[in-house]
Specification:
Protein name: GTP-binding protein
Organism: Paenibacillus agri
Strand content: 15-25%
Mean pLDDT: 87
Shape: globular
InterPro entries: CobW-likC_sf, CobW-like_C, CobW/HypB/UreG_nucleotide-bd, P-loop_NTPase, Zinc-reg_GTPase_activator
Structural class: alpha/beta
GO cellular component, one term: cytoplasm
Distance between the termini: 60 Å
Bound molecules: guanosine-5'-triphosphate
Low-confidence stretches: 222-245
Catalytic activity: GTP + H2O = GDP + phosphate + H(+)
Number of domains: 2
CATH topology of the largest domain: Rossmann fold
Length: 342
């Protein structure tokens, strides 16, 4: 029996890892043993550590590049490693600039096509920012096209961070989504909390002799929905033109580390000001930092221009990964160093 693959896509900071955490918790409750591939643009494995901290799971990590373009060849090797562990399903979390169609096509290539089947592609949108991205990212036409492909190739669109916007914005998002994808189910949520039953439908522990995974006609939210997913058992793929469709966006990551022996002296406000002053070009930042007060190590996340903090048990040297469009690395590094001199 082929192993079902669920692809999690969506722009930077939209809520993919939050969704993956729920999926892993639900999988655990069902006695499933999933394999996970996480891809990060930066050199540091921030999300993998979050996952490990919350679920105790180890994941296959592909760092420092995007598996839909610059690190494409490594995806196959990584999936082979996971297959050797005989997982019940495989969850692939893409980078925010990845085109999920590329991954879907990679699954159709030999030898993977004999072992894997695409079960679902879910794309997460940040309700607060998604309508702005076309104009904000217009300098990078590849990226704008990739964001459209994230929507058009999805079976399920999760409009996340609904807690941060008015109902009117949600209607506008639905209208914009429908221009790209008339079929996908759309669900509105916060902290990526959806009904996971349809997503995991037909995926069972390997010991149980159950037929191949199938899409269930259940809805992703509790209220009844009229649309029923077609029982196709896989994502419909459109005609492929790799040269035109790969991401290769201008988004890049820069890892900023604390200077050797630097005393813990920075405040939350200083980090928040640092991110804000990076301006529109900074799209995402995340890392583990030490603050001046007696606080434990903090996981800091900057997404959609908001900064959030969470206690962390990260034991390594502190760092922050900054991800952005045309980041001025020299300026950023200088401003970062200046933080420690003040
Ligand atoms: N207010 C609010 N914050 C959210 C919601 N969902 C996620 N977040 C926060 O948004 C930040 C990014 O969430 P992630 O799940 O890491 O997003 P991601 O898409 O995996 O991010 P990258 O893979 O790094 O691009 C975190 O600080 C989350 O706690 C939501 O519905 N509402």
């Amino acid at each position: 029996m082929k192993i079902p693959v669920i692809i999690l896509s969506g722009f930077l900071g939209s809520g993919k890892t939050t969704l993956l955490l729920s999926l892993l918790q639900e999988s655990k409750q069902r006695g499933l043993n999933p394999g996970v591939v996480m891809n990060e643009l930066g050199q540091r494995d921030v999300d993998g550590y979050i996952l490990q901290e919350h679920t105790g799971m180890t994941v296959e990590k592909l760092l420092d590049g995007c598996i839909c373009c610059s690190r494409k060849e490594e995806l196959g090797e990584c999936l082979q490693v996971l297959l050797a562990r005989r997982p019940d399903a495989i969850f692939i979390e893409l980078t925010g600039v990845a085109n999920p169609e590329e991954i879907a096509y990679a699954l159709l290539e030999a030898p993977l096509r004999d072992r894997l089947t695409l079960h679902f592609t879910a794309t997460v949108l940040d309700a607060e920012n998604t309508l702005e991205y076309n104009s904000r990212l217009s300098a990078d036409r590849h990226l704008v096209r990739t964001l459209r492909q994230q929507i058009s190739s999805a079976d399920l669109i999760i409009v996340n961070k609904s807690d941060l916007v008015e109902q009117e914005t949600l209607w506008k998002i639905e209208k914009a989504v429908r221009k790209q994808n008339i079929e996908a189910e759309i669900v509105y949520t916060h902290y990526s909390k959806i009904n996971l039953v349809p997503l995991l439908a037909g995926i069972t522990p390997r010991e149980l002799p159950i037929p191949a995974p199938q899409r269930a006609p259940q809805t992703f939210k509790s209220a009844a929905m009229t649309r029923v997913l077609p029982d196709s058992g896989g994502t419909a793929l459109k005609e492929h033109d790799t040269a035109q469709e790969t991401s290769y966006s201008q988004v890049a990551a820069l890892t900023l580390t604390f200077p050797q022996g630097a005393p813990a002296q920075l405040t939350r406000r200083q980090f928040e000001t640092f991110f804000r002053e990076c301006g529109d070009n900074l799209l995402r930042a995340k890392g583990h930092v030490i603050l001046s007060d007696d606080e434990p190590v903090q996981l800091v996340q900057y997404a959609g221009m908001r900064t959030s903090w969470e206690a962390s048990s990260y034991p390594g040297l502190p760092y922050v990964v900054c991800i952005g469009l045309n980041l001025n690395e020299a300026l950023l590094t200088e401003r970062w160093s200046a933080l420690f001199r003040s």
